[in-house]
Amino acid sequence: MELSRQKCRRHAFREAVARCMECNGFFCRECVTEHEDRLLCSDCLLKLAGKSKKKFTILFRSFQLSWGLVCLFFLWFFFYEIGKFLLSLPADFHDGTFWTRMSGVE
């Protein structure tokens, strides 16, 4: 059948202007879009997007996990070094007597 005589699969009163390359259905201007040099309906576009999304999900999750572990290590190391620094300070610094000696008031 000719394209000029077809009606949109979703909108029965609109004439079709394109054919989806995946499902071969006829659609109006609002129902098709160009994706990778092909005209696709929204249903087929969602199917293609879902397939490619699943491929990257595992890779993305493993990247997130490894990045989270690296960040956790750096945070631990940062606070470990702060703790070592605080332990290296003299005891009179912690007691408050260090500051009174520095200001000259005793």
What does this molecule look like?
With 106 residues, the chain is mainly α. The chain has a single domain, classed as Cysteine Rich Protein, CATH 2.10.110. It is built from three helices and four strands; from the N terminus they run E-E-E-E-H-H-H. It has helices at residues 42-88, 91-95, 97-103; strands at residues 18-19, 26-27, 32-35, 38-41. The strands form two sheets. A two-stranded antiparallel sheet has the order 1-2. A hairpin with a 2-residue loop joins strand 3 (32-35) and strand 4. It is rod-shaped and about 100 Å long. The model has no long low-confidence stretch (mean pLDDT 82).
Tell me the major beta sheet.
Answer: 2 strands, antiparallel
Estimate the mean pLDDT confidence.
82
Assign the structural class, choosing from mainly alpha, mainly beta, alpha/beta, alpha+beta, or little secondary structure: mainly alpha
Shape: rod-shaped
Count of all domains: 1
Question: Which blocks of ≥5 consecutive residues have pLDDT under 50?
Answer: none
Brief synopsis:
The protein is mainly alpha-helical and 106 residues long. Helices cover 56% and strands 11% of the residues. The longest helix is centred in the middle third of the chain and has 47 residues, at 42-88.
